[in-house]
Amino acid sequence: MKKTFLFIFAIATTIATAQTPCDNFSAGPYDCNGLDLQSSISLSTMGASSGNDSWGWTDPDTGNEYALIGLDNGTAFIDITDPINPTYLGKMDTETNPSSWRDIKVYQNHAFVVSEANGHGMQIFDLTRLRDVANPPENFNPDEVYTQFGSAHNIVINEDTGFAYAVGTATFGGGPHFINIQDPQNPIAAGGYSSDGYSHDSQVVIYNGPDADYAGREILISSNETEVVIRDVTDKSNPTLIETITYPNIGYTHQGWFTEDQRYFILGDEVDELNIGGETRTMIFDFEDLDDPELDFIYEGPTAAIDHNGYVHNGKYYMANYTAGLRVIDLQDIANGSIEEVQSFDSHPENNSANFNGAWSVYPYFASGNIVISDINRGFLLVRDPLLGTADSNAEAFSISPNPAENNITISGTNQSLTSIIVYNILGQTVMQNNFDAASSKNIDVSQLNAGMYLVKINDTTTKRLIIK
C-alpha cells in the first residue's frame, strides 16, 4: 500500500460465532454474492487498531488450517480448522514500533514477517508451535530475526528455490534484497540490486510459461510504482533485465500476479481510481513473449473502489478491493479479452468509494475452500462458497488408503470404475495427472510429492483430501 494515501478509520466490531449465509445478496450487514460468512474476529479481540496483510498455513501433518493476520502492532495466528468457530491462538508483537504496514509469507512451516516499522527486520516464526497452544491467546516471540535491513514494505518468497525477496527496504535503493531461507531459521543475505528503483511488490516463479527462451529460469516480476519490471534472477550475482512495460494513466503500479499458465499478468494500480476517477481498473498483460510484453486489455469492475492485493487460484482472480471487499473474477475467457466478476463479499458495507478502508488482502489457497479477508477496519473475516461443501465431495464413491501416506496410495471405487485423477497442491496447482483404463482400483506412486495436504479429484466427480507425510 502506498503510504502517502492511507487513512485509517477504526470501526469497533465483535466476534461472529456463527455462520451467516449469503441470502438474497446479504450476509448480516454485508453485501455478498455467492459467498457465505463463516466467521470473523474483531480488531479489539486481537488487541489492535488496524489490520493489513494476510497469508495462510496448512499443517502438513494434520491438515489443520491457520490464518495469519497482519495487524498494526503484530501478527495474529488463528486456527480455522473449524471455520465456524475459529480459535484466536494469540499474537507475535511487532519487533519494534507499531506500523500500518506489515507483510507475511510462509515457507517450510515458517512465517516470515516484515514491516515498515523502523528497525523491524524480518521476523521468522516456526508455525508448528501453533499445534500445542495450551491457553490461547498467547503472546509469541519470533524464533529468529533477520537484521540485514530495518523496515521493508513487502516480503516475496519463491518456495521452489528457498529464496526470499524483501522489497521497499533502505538497502538496494528499495529494490529487491535477496535472502537464502533454505534453512528457515538461519537466513543468509544473498545480494540484491538497485538499478530498477523502488519495488513495491513482486512475484517470483520458476518459469514454465509459453516463452521457451526462459523455461526453468527464476523470473521476478516487480511492480515498481510507474512500471512493471521483468528480470531473470536465476544468478543472484547477476540479475538480468528482460523488459519493462507501462500502461495508460498510471497512478501507482502496485501489485500483480501471473495466471496459472504464466501467459497473462494481472496488475492493480492503487491510486488511479483516486486520482482519475472511474471504476476499479485492472490491467491484463500478455506475457507470451517476456522480451516483448503487451498490454492486452483493461478490466473495469462494478464500483469506484480502489484495488489492492490480488491472487490467482483455480482459474479465478481474488481481488482485495478495499471498500468493495473481496471480488472474485472468472478468468476462463481471458484469452478472448474478457474476464467477469462472479462472486463478491463486501467487508466494508459503509460505502464503495475510492478511499483506503476495507479489504487489504485475501488468501484463497486453502484446500477447504475457506477464503481469508484481512480488513483494515474489521480485522479477520472468513468466507466460503457454499457450493463447495465442507467435506470431501461424493466421498462415498471412492476411498484412498493409506491416508496419510508416504510413497504409494491405493484409490478404490465402491460402485464405479476409476478412470482419471488430478492432484492439486494447496495453491491449486496441478502436481499430478493420470488417465487410466477403467479399473476398480489403482496403485499410485506419490513418493515425489512433498509433505503436505493435497486435493485429489477423481473422475471429475469426486474430491478427496490426501495428506503426504
From TrEMBL:
Residues 400-468 form the Secretion system C-terminal sorting domain. GO terms for cellular component: extracellular region. InterPro entries: Choice_anch_B, Secre_tail. The lineage of its organism: Bacteria, Pseudomonadati, Bacteroidota, Flavobacteriia, Flavobacteriales. This is Secretion system C-terminal sorting domain-containing protein. The keyword Cell cycle does not apply. Keywords: Signal. Residues 1-18 form the signal peptide. It holds the Pfam family Por_Secre_tail.
